[in-house]
Amino acid sequence: MRQSRMFIPTMRETPQDAESLSHRLMLKAGMIKQMASGIYTYLPITKLVLNNIEQIVREEMNAVGGVEIHMPVLHPKELWQESGRWDAYGRELMRIQDRHDRDFALGPTHEEMITALLRDELKSYKKLPLTLFQIQTKFRDELRPRFGLLRGREFIMKDAYSFHSNEASLDETYKDMYNAYSNIFSRVELNYRAVEADSGAIGGSHTHEFMALADIGEDTVVYTDGSNYAANIEKAACPVPEPVETNSSKEIEKVETPGVATCAVLAEHLDITVEETTKTMIMRIGNDYAMILLRGDHELNDIKVKSYFKTDDVDFATDEEIRNLLNATPGSLGPVHTELPVYLDHQVRNMQDYPTGANESGYHFVNVNHERDYEVVDYDDFRFITEGEMAQDDSGPVKFMKGIEVGQVFKLGTKYSESMNLNVLDENGRSVPVLMGCYGVGVSRTLSAIIESHNDDRGIIWPKAVTPFDIHIITANPKDDEGVKIAEDLYESLGKRYRVLYDDRKERAGVKFADSDLIGLPYRVVIGRGAKEGKVEVKARRSEESMDLSIDDVLQYLEVNY
Ligand code: ATP
Ligand code: MG
Question: Does ligand 1 come within 6 angstroms of the Cβ of 442?
Answer without folding.
Answer: yes
